[in-house]
């Protein structure tokens, strides 16, 4: 099967598909000269700049899904809630600004955002090059949904630290190279600049999932990434009250996604969730600093504990890509994982013994959370794939929250004593 990206014979209502052109650089944003924290507060909405539209200090929730036409032949800026709504637009502009991208389009979840992106840029016969080091639903889309339902193949690079291995996996039908760094749940770090160089030399855009680090700690676009995938559900929201996702990238691609998947298929972010996200983003860099400091302390404790077999945390000098992590990230982030002895039974004993740390499926929350990837998020991988991805039966993922680190450490210490 060969891929046809031309528009010939297309129904009149489909947009021209976005085609990556390495030589076309995204337009610089007008707010690029402002600092990160200033943009986290002001991008997309400013009480004075938006006075005519809102006359409000806080960006209002516009809880309306349809918008009146000024007259029969005049279109309003917002028409219907499936394409865009005012509060969501403020959030999209803020996310684009924080990542340093031209534009953003939100989705009902991070998984939906990945789906919308791949569905938009790949056709049957095309492929996407990635690794097994991705979040669980990403793996499931890559291993089953896209190949079986859409005819899009995903190629999993094994030696992801070797740029030549990425190069070997790319061919004429490759539409996207997708990197998750640090990866969930094993916290492997990929060299964004090196993979960007390879992808660009083959005329392919680079997608970086920046969910685990967030733009407060890592700026993939400064290192050559073209597109950013975000789950808003995690550190960006920071408290497990909102599910959401976004793709940040060139405006043409973003509008292609908005029109062909968001508008026609409809998995959107609602205004209230967008409004909550806007409140949470105001404190992103403060929270990421504290998450990183706490996780660094917890990782240090676990690394020196005799009952812990292995600790995966980019901020530890024992991490296999510690130097790269230091160059690429402003802090280790709030996510780590560690291996206890005794496989599944050991993990169960440890997790059942925790009194402060909560066993739940998410990360990036103000409260510390633990989760067992083998049984919960990566259960669909084969044993061989899990082995390759470093998902041991005794692996526990820990999202270190904003509590006093000493209290989290004391809880882990008493639980480890039960092993
Ligand atoms: C790195 C990463 N990206 C994207 C997602 C998808 O996010 P959501 O849960 O919002 O669908 C996840 C979820 O775990 C994730 O860990």
Protein described:
With 419 residues, the protein is of the alpha/beta class. 35% of the residues lie in helices and 12% in strands. The protein has helices at 36-42, 86-99, 110-121, 136-150, 163-169, 192-201, 251-265, 271-281, 284-303, 322-328, 343-352, 383-389, 405-416, and strands at 103-107, 127-130, 153-156, 174-180, 206-209, 227-231, 245-249, 310-312, 335-339, 358-359, 369-371, 395-399. Helix 3 (110-121) runs parallel beside helix 4 (136-150) and helix 9 (284-303) packs parallel to helix 13. It binds pyridoxal-5'-phosphate (PLP).
Helix content percent band: 25-40%
CATH class value of the largest domain = Alpha Beta
Can you identify the CATH superfamily of the largest domain? Type I PLP-dependent aspartate aminotransferase-like (Major domain)
Nearest-integer average pLDDT: 94
Listed once per kind, the bound small molecules are: pyridoxal-5'-phosphate
Task: Provide the structure class.
Answer: alpha/beta
Could you tell me the strand content as a percent range? 5-15%
For the sheet with most strands, the description reads: 7 strands, mixed
Q: Please report the distance between the alpha carbons of the first and last residues.
A: 54 Å
Question: What shape does the CA trace take?
Answer: globular
Count of individual helical segments: 13
Please compute the radius of gyration using only Cα atoms: 22 Å
Instruction: Please count the beta strands (DSSP E, at least 2 residues each).
Output: 12
Order of helices and strands: HHEHEHEHEHEEEHHHEHEHEEHEH
The strand line-up of the biggest sheet is 1-7-6-5-4-2-3
Weakly predicted, low-confidence segments: none
Task: Kindly identify the CATH topology of the largest domain.
Answer: Aspartate Aminotransferase, domain 2
CATH architecture of the largest domain: 3-Layer(aba) Sandwich
The overall number of domains is 2
